[in-house]
Amino acid sequence: MRRAFPLAVLLAVCASLSARADLTDACWSLVYRQPAAGLTEADRVIAATNAAHDDIHRADAHLCRGAALEQLGRPIEAQQEYEFGISEGTRLHYDPLVAAGLRLRGELRYYRGLMNDSLADLQRSYRLYTALQRAKEARSALESIANVYADARVGDFDRAIEYYEQILRENPSPSDEELSTGYFNIASTMERKGDLKGALVEYQRGLEIDRKRHEPGEVAVDQRAIASLLGRLGRPAEGLRYVNAALGYLEQQHAVETAAQAHLTRGGLLRRLGRWSAALDDLEIARKRFEETKNARFLEKTQEERSLAFAGAGRWQEAFEAQAAQMALRGELEEKLKEEQTARLRVQFDSEKKEQENRALLRENELRDQALRAATRVRQLQTIVIILGTLVIAALAYLVVKHIANANRMRVMAMTDELTKLPNRRHVLMVAADSVAFARQHATPLSLLMLDIDLFKRINDRFGHDTGDAVLRRVADAGRASLRRREDVMGRTGGEEFIVVLPRTDAQSALDVAERLRTSVEAIDCSDLHPELRVTISIGIAAWTSGEAVDALLKRADELLYRAKERGRNRVEMEVAFA
């Protein structure tokens, strides 16, 4: 989602404060291009307005200081500055200042993931600008509100699209940049909603405008988005043309972050085309750059794509390592969110405490002759601090409990295949290793089935990936029903491949299970998916031999699976010695 650039809006607010608006103009003109210089200018203006008792411009300079701190990556301090500006605007009954502060704090809260608080700030800002009849600023605030609703964590996509369309409709003379941004935001929201074809139309409208504007940077952003969407639409070859064009410009401009995103997109497209080596080359570039920029969110997505590409290339160990790295990054992102929530509580506590202290200072002269009331007020403040401290402790305890619950949920997710709800590759290989260890220690038999859905790529190509996913789920259900006891474990190892671990089971019993599983799958009724759809599987059986390692057992089962496919599919193959 594109973030609306707030400089023009904020300058308009500053210009309307009074005839002395030049006091803060310099600060706002620097803050988004040279934030360190903007911070220095804000401090200079604050010192000057303190001496002149100019409260409005002093508060506005604090807002500018907060914007500079936010650009410098210091969000906690930035929020404190915004809250001071809002508080002063409220005290002075100056709504333009309050509206600007709420807009800034609302956007900061959005980028920190505090969606409810962000919406509350942005909606108040929008209402104030509307009441002040400031249409441009109101549209800008409404765009920020739409961005929150369009975020996947909120997911109110229809309302977001409604607001984006309202912004375009109510703008009497939109610029090409505003139109392009509007189409891009509508497209990305449609994509998240699942309306992929509609999203493609809107992306292309924005791309056409950006080309006419001769804005190669925006064109590259559009092209990368279109390429990613075409991959999801099952048109990766077409997507490659768009992402290659975007990459050429981004690399030329040394745009490290956006070029890395384009490499990630191209890697995913190449993976979908089965070009594993080329895909891994792009994904390695993306991985290194996201590690350099410490972009955990995109690095987690890159590791997911690498795991899929390694698996497609049959490099299972590297696929497992990439998946493990992905899960670790996902855990770090969850932990970071919890830390930000904790930091938010601390900021709220500090801000409320400072507001109390400010009010006490402003009333100091009035309370000098009212010592009894002042003492009572101090006791009240102490009580409030104790209550707030108790609330902070309770909130932290709640976050700890929630973190433990999330950690347990993440452990389950890390061991379960999302589509079939079977154990995933990591889990089933762990079961296989444990079963071999048990068989070796107790001298019990052990068998392993490796199975593969016949001609699964043809099913995906002919009937679509949604049908392919449904087939995978039904095969998994048939597998569960065919197992004999709780200790038998079936897991999905990737794509259309599955493993069944049968502890305390000799070769002949394993053959019975395999034939039961094969016939169960052959009997699956898929007529509701497509009248011509038939599903069969091929199975290889390997019985464990004394002293054999789990990798050797898996390799034998895999070789027998390929023998079954070579001999006509829809059959079971095992060593001749057990036939």
Average pLDDT, rounded to a whole number, is 85
Q: Structural class of the helices, strands and pairings?
A: mainly alpha
Q: Distance N terminus to C terminus?
A: 61 Å
DSSP helix fraction = over 70%
Give a brief outline of the structure.
With 579 residues, the protein is mainly alpha-helical. It has helices at residues 7-15, 22-31, 35-52, 55-71, 75-91, 95-111, 115-131, 135-150, 157-170, 176-193, 196-213, 216-232, 236-252, 256-272, 276-293, 296-312, 316-362, 364-367, 371-414, 425-442, 456-463, 465-482, 507-522, 550-566; strands at residues 446-453, 489-494, 497-503, 537-543, 572-574.
Keywords:
5 strands, 579 residues, 24 helices, Serine Threonine Protein Phosphatase 5, Tetratricopeptide repeat, 5-stranded mixed β-sheet, 4 domains, disordered N terminus
Structure commentary:
The protein has 24 helices and 5 strands. With 579 residues, the chain is mainly α. It folds into 4 domains: 172 residues, Tetratricopeptide repeat domain (Serine Threonine Protein Phosphatase 5, Tetratricopeptide repeat), CATH 1.25.40; 130 residues, Serine Threonine Protein Phosphatase 5, Tetratricopeptide repeat; 79 residues; 154 residues, Alpha-Beta Plaits (2-Layer Sandwich). Strands 2-3-1-4-5 form a 5-stranded mixed β-sheet, sandwiched between helices. Helix 10 packs antiparallel against helix 11 and helix 13 packs antiparallel against helix 14. It is elongated, with a radius of gyration of 31 Å. The N terminus is likely disordered.
